[in-house]
Design a protein that fits this description.
This protein is an alpha+beta fold and about 170 residues long. It contains 6 helices and 5 strands. It has 2 domains: about 130 residues, Alpha-Beta Plaits (2-Layer Sandwich); about 45 residues. Helix 1 packs across helix 3.
Length: about 170
């Protein structure tokens, strides 16, 4: 690989790192071509971009990127793949599902909206993170609940008051 090719790879990685608030680093070594292709297909179906990268080039991109990524430098050993996604838990769920039949990929680290997670033991935590859409749905449900309770109370109270007035008027007559 020429120096110019390496520079282009670092430039492209840097652009992706600056564009995305979510990326995962994983080890997919020891996967044969067929298994690796299955993983790539699963990733594509879930809108997760999977690329194998050289550690030295990734480190240069991380050093030049906006943000603080020093914690990742220690995990840049051996085979490294980078997974980009728009949804914070999508790569973690992908890894979990794929590992039901395979030993790999192993999570090295993840960056989600300024939070850094290091180590494969964080995979369950990352898979449980709610997506932006799920959080918005939860907030809307929470906001609607009190309003529904108030409307329900007012409506039932109105019929109670109307019933009370009617009963009182009937007693007078």
């Amino acid at each position: 690989m020429t120096k110019q090719e390496k520079h282009e790879i670092v430039k492209n990685l840097l652009a992706k790192l600056n564009e995305n608030n979510i990326f995962y680093l994983a080890d997919i070594s020891e996967l044969d071509a067929e298994t690796s292709t299955k993983l790539r297909r699963m990733a594509f179906k879930r809108d997760v971009s999977l690329n194998v990268v050289k550690n030295t080039l990734l480190r240069k991109a991380l050093e030049a990127a906006e943000g603080s990524y020093e914690e990742f430098y220690d995990v840049l050993k051996g085979n490294t793949s980078i997974l980009f996604s728009e949804v914070g838990n999508a790569p973690a769920k992908l890894i979990q599902e794929f590992r039901k039949k395979n030993k790999k990929p192993i999570l090295k680290g993840a960056y989600i909206e300024e939070a850094i997670f290091i180590g494969d033991d964080k995979i369950d935590t990352l898979a449980q993170i709610k997506s932006k859409e799920e959080l918005i749905g939860d907030i809307i449900t929470l906001l609607q609940s009190p309003a529904k309770n108030v409307l329900s109370a007012l409506q039932s109270g109105g019929s109670t008051i109307a019933g009370l007035v009617q009963t009182l008027s009937e007693k007078k007559a």
